[in-house]
Write a structure and sequence with these properties.
The protein is of the alpha/beta class and 297 residues long. It is 38% helix and 24% strand. The protein is built from ten helices and ten strands. The radius of gyration is 19 Å and the shape is globular.
Length: 297
């Protein structure tokens, strides 16, 4: 029977995420088909960042949960891939991604790895658990900043707490057993990076549940989603300021915001903003980098 060999790109950092998705989003057409003789080749990978590892995991996890392949395997796993997977705390997740993803998720804790990396956290639709994740994460960040005796620790913690709360709140609103939202936080004495991804409805389709946006193109809808007061829950007390507030803080911080949802990519890099069409991702990916030396909220 014919083999299917999937070669992952050599470079799997933020600037190359769209290439990774382009090469793998054919799996959406294979839901429930359990295609046999599938091999993932990762030996050629030479560069991976936190976001790259996260997206690779979500692709593997999606293919497992949706029954796209029958007993797929890694082929030609190189030292580079294993190094990056371990560095960013995805060792147990990758090990279980073709066996029992629920077991892997249930074993996740907000452990700190290599100084300042809050290991991957699963976000479900439990408000109490969501609040606990924010608090646990902030405790570890605050402890790190205090240990390093960095200036503006209090302001930095407030900034990160606001961003995390808004981000967790947005993912929480759409999280369920099918999306398995994953959030990872890491940093050093210069920057804090927050990366998260799910395979849910996506920001655009969520907003398109509102009549005004149903016939609008995807780029337009995402632009609106980042504006203040725009919400998929009109007529409620929902303020519609989550993405707008995050984008505003990133701009004032001179940081970076990367939103990849469905077929649109929005980038705010040091106040320079761009939005463009990209290969489709079923869900939402968000990556944020904040400058510790310039806290704002």
């Amino acid at each position: 029977m014919k083999e299917t060999v999937i070669y992952f790109p050599k470079r799997l950092a933020r600037n190359y995420i769209s290439e990774l998705i382009r090469k793998t989003n054919f799996i959406y057409s294979l839901e429930g088909k359990r295609k046999p003789n599938v091999y993932f080749v990762v030996r050629e990978i030479t560069e991976m960042d936190l976001l790259g590892v996260l997206v690779v995991y979500k692709i593997l996890e999606y293919s497992y949960k949706q029954g796209c392949f029958n007993s797929p395997t890694f082929h030609r796993v190189g030292e580079s891939f294993n190094k990056y997977v371990k560095r960013f705390g995805f060792g147990s997740l990758i090990a279980e991604c073709f066996k029992d993803t629920e077991k892997a998720y249930n074993s996740l804790k907000t452990d700190t790895i290599e100084g300042f990396l809050v290991a991957p956290m699963a976000l479900n639709n439990d408000a109490v658990e969501t609040e606990k994740l924010v608090n646990d994460t902030m405790q570890k960040i605050e402890q790190y900043l205090e240990d390093k005796d960095l200036p503006n620790t209090s302001d930095t913690c407030i900034m990160v707490s606001v961003v995390l709360s808004e981000l967790f709140g947005n993912f929480y609103a759409h999280a369920n057993d099918k999306t398995n939202s994953i959030i990872v936080v890491r940093g050093n004495n210069q920057h804090i990076q927050i990366s998260c991804a799910d395979t849910g409805l996506g920001i655009i389709d969520t907003l398109k549940t509102v009549d005004h946006y149903k016939t609008k193109d995807e780029e337009y809808v995402l632009r609106q989603a980042i504006k203040k007061g725009v919400t998929s829950k009109p007529g409620t007390f929902h303020m519609g300021q989550g993405l707008w507030l995050i984008d505003d803080i990133v701009s004032r911080n001179n940081g970076q915001l990367f939103i990849y949802t469905q077929s649109v990519n929005y980038i705010n890099s040091h106040k320079k903003k761009n939005i463009c069409s990209v290969p489709r991702w079923n869900g939402t990916i968000i990556d944020i980098i904040l400058d510790i030396k310039n806290p704002c909220y």
